[in-house]
Inverse folding.
């Protein structure tokens, strides 16, 4: 299982003493310093953080999931060994255990959880979702993109869809509020994450049009049109062509 050495982006580490970073790659930090973590410990921490969140999980069940090809007794022994070897920065436990269950320590923050809360703010009901003032860069990272564990596939795709919808929703709301720079940043982050995603390109084009940058809007559309042709051999949908049809000086040809 290939594991990335750390987050792939240069975004700053979150504030706080202990952080488990799963977006863009695995990293475990304390006071801003990366801690050395074995591959088995990475798998344990990531599995609990992604599938159990902050809820307790039965030790026996977790051992079977992490070591499915071994006997129950060997899997249990492996789990004990990994827990014993976990880093304890300044004597702090990252995992709280009893005889039958374990859970992540309340002192350990997880960037995935923070990103999910941010995505919920962006995608919640319009009347109840204040737009975030902070950096949306955290929504530009995939969940452990270099890992190939089967259990992670559905979780990774679920989070990817949530963050893309959140970026597009933010781009739309920010444009409506006249915050064009922020709106463009959110839209382009969605495009960068999924270049063939039409709704992301539409958000970027809408921002350019709202600012009066018609040439930029046409350039974005033309780049997307060429990409669709080269990659998939299909034309853009009528929905995105309607955005730029007035700029071309002709009505939309729905047969194209």
């Amino acid at each position: 299982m290939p594991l990335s050495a750390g987050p792939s982006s240069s975004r700053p580490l979150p504030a706080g003493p202990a952080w488990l970073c799963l977006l863009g790659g695995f990293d475990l930090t304390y006071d801003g310093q990366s801690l050395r973590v074995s591959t088995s410990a990475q798998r344990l921490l990531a599995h609990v953080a992604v599938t159990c969140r902050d809820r307790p999980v039965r030790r026996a069940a977790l051992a079977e999931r992490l070591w499915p090809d071994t006997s129950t007794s060997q899997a249990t022994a492996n789990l004990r060994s990994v827990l014993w070897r976990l880093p304890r920065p300044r004597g702090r436990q990252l995992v709280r255990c009893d005889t039958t269950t374990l859970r992540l320590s309340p002192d350990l923050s997880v960037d995935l959880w923070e990103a999910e809360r941010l995505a919920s703010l962006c995608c919640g009901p319009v009347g109840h979702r204040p737009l975030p003032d902070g950096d949306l860069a955290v929504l530009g990272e995939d969940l452990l993109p270099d890992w190939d564990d089967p259990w992670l596939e559905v979780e990774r795709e679920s989070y990817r869809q949530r963050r893309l919808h959140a970026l597009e929703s933010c781009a739309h709301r920010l444009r409506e509020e006249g915050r064009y720079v922020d709106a463009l940043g959110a839209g382009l982050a969605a495009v960068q994450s999924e270049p063939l995603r039409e709704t992301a390109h539409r958000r970027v084009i809408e921002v350019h049009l709202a600012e009066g940058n018609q040439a930029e809007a046409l350039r974005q559309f033309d780049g997307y049109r060429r990409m669709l042709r080269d990659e998939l051999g299909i034309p853009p949908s009528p929905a995105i062509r309607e955005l730029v049809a007035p700029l071309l000086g002709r009505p939309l040809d729905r047969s194209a």
